[in-house]
């Protein structure tokens, strides 16, 4: 496992421990929880490792 994959596992756990639902982009359901973190979210300028949503509105980006 490379460093980025290990970092993503750690980030997934930290987000989950803080009450976020972590989902893959292809299985995204923004109504699953108030706070949803979506992995590998495509943007105009590239792919965000995580795009964070609160109440279905984008509020932040995390890079692994």
Explain this structure to me?
The protein has 64 residues and is α+β, with helices and mostly antiparallel strands. It has one domain (3-62). Helix content is 23%, strand content 44%. The chain has one helix at 3-17, and strands at residues 21-24, 35-43, 46-54, 57-62. Strands 1-2-3-4 form a 4-stranded mixed beta sheet, covered by helices on one side. β2 (35-43) and β3 (46-54) form a beta hairpin. The mean pLDDT is 96.
Provide a concise account of the structure shown:
The chain is of the alpha+beta class and 64 residues long. It contains one helix and four strands.
Descriptors:
alpha+beta, 23% helix, single chain, 44% strand
List strands and helices in order, with pairings.
Layout: H1 3-17, E1 21-24, E2 35-43, E3 46-54, E4 57-62
Parallel strand pairs: 1-2
Antiparallel strand pairs: 2-3, 3-4
Uncertain spans, ≥5 residues at pLDDT below 50? none
Give the oligomeric state: single chain
> What distance lies between the first and last C-alpha atoms, to the nearest angstrom?
14 Å
Question: How confident overall, as mean pLDDT?
Answer: 96
Shape: globular
Largest sheet: 4 strands, mixed
Q: How large a portion of the residues is in β-strands, by DSSP E?
A: 35-45%
Q: C-alpha Rg, in Å? A: 11 Å
Count of helical segments? 1
The H/E string reads HEEEE
Integer count of domains: 1
Strand order of the biggest β-sheet = 1-2-3-4
Structural class comes to: alpha+beta
Q: What's the helical proportion of residues?
A: 10-25%
In total, the number of strands is 4
């Amino acid at each position: 496992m490379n460093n980025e994959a290990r970092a993503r596992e750690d980030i997934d756990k930290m987000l989950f421990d803080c009450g976020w639902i972590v989902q893959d982009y292809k299985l995204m359901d923004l109504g699953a929880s108030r706070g949803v973190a979506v992995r590998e979210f495509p943007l105009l300028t590239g792919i965000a490792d995580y795009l964070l949503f609160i109440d279905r509105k984008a509020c932040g980006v995390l890079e692994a």
